[in-house]
């Protein structure tokens, strides 16, 4: 029996392709995957509605109470950044769903086949999530400013005072991005939507409540009460309401939580099969 030319060609090993997916193309693919999900659009819509609506309600309440409630102590910037305590949950959930959806559908295998450098995949997804939340928060803050300004009238924004306006607004933008990255990190770690969302919500919302309950325990539980200052939500609240107080500590706390989650997610992504 003779071996045909076609059989010899098929048996001959092929040279590995020199084509490599560039980082810009990788970011484009991550953008496409994120914004083709309906959950992304719903999350962003809920974020805008919550932020603008709560800012409006706070401004209206303080305006109706007048000086007797110390209206001047709650400046318009505080009204704009106050919804952060609610929208942080949406940001964290969005970050978690940005990756866990790929694991549930098996798309992560296609992503890692197209780009075997797993760290690049994580970095591209983190960049896309960060830019998305930054852009959304900037637009939302602008809308809230426009809505709140007529209510405060003469007691409006003091744009010349950066400590009372620009700095808190800037930290609100950064905080929303870090909350989303925290959820993304847990998504890479757990690889399950429900588990990643539960972990994110637990850190951002449940854990602060649990820790605050020990304030009735006396000095023996003071170490646990002090833990409250090292939670990401409390650091964000301090930076957006009183940025001059313990700024260095709060910045480290705010950035350390998502950084630790992403490093852990990167380690799991490298060592475990998709």
TrEMBL record:
Q: Which domain of life is it from?
A: Bacteria
**Where are the bilayer-spanning segments?**
41-62, 82-101, 122-149, 169-189, 196-217, 251-269
Keyword annotations from UniProtKB, A to Z: Membrane, Transmembrane, Transmembrane helix
User: Per its record, how is this protein called by name?
Assistant: ABC transporter permease subunit
Question: Origin organism of this chain?
Answer: Microbacterium aquilitoris
């Amino acid at each position: 029996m003779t071996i045909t030319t076609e059989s010899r060609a098929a048996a001959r090993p092929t040279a590995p392709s020199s084509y490599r997916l560039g980082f810009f193309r990788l970011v484009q693919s991550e953008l496409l995957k994120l914004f083709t999900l309906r959950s992304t659009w719903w999350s962003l819509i809920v974020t805008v509605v919550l932020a603008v609506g709560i800012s409006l309600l706070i401004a209206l309440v303080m305006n109706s109470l007048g000086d007797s409630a110390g209206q001047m102590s709650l400046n318009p910037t505080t009204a704009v950044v106050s919804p952060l305590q609610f929208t942080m949950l949406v940001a964290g959930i969005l970050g978690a769903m940005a990756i866990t959806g790929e694991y549930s559908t098996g798309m992560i295998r296609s992503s890692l086949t197209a780009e075997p450098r797993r760290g690049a995949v994580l970095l591209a997804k983190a960049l896309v999530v960060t830019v998305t939340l930054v852009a959304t928060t900037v637009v939302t803050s602008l809308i809230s400013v426009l809505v709140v300004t007529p209510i405060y009238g003469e007691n409006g924004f003091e744009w010349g005072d950066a400590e009372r306006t620009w700095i808190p607004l800037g930290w609100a933008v950064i905080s929303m991005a870090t909350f989303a990255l925290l959820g993304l990190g847990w998504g890479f770690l757990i690889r399950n939507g429900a588990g990643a969302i539960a972990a994110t919500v637990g850190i951002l919302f449940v854990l602060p409540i649990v820790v605050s309950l020990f304030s009735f325990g006396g000095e023996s539980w003071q170490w646990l009460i002090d833990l409250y200052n090292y939670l990401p939500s409390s650091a964000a609240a301090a930076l957006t309401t009183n940025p001059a107080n313990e700024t260095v500590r709060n910045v480290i706390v705010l950035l350390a939580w998502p950084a630790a989650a992403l490093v852990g997610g990167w380690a799991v992504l490298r060592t475990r099969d998709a």
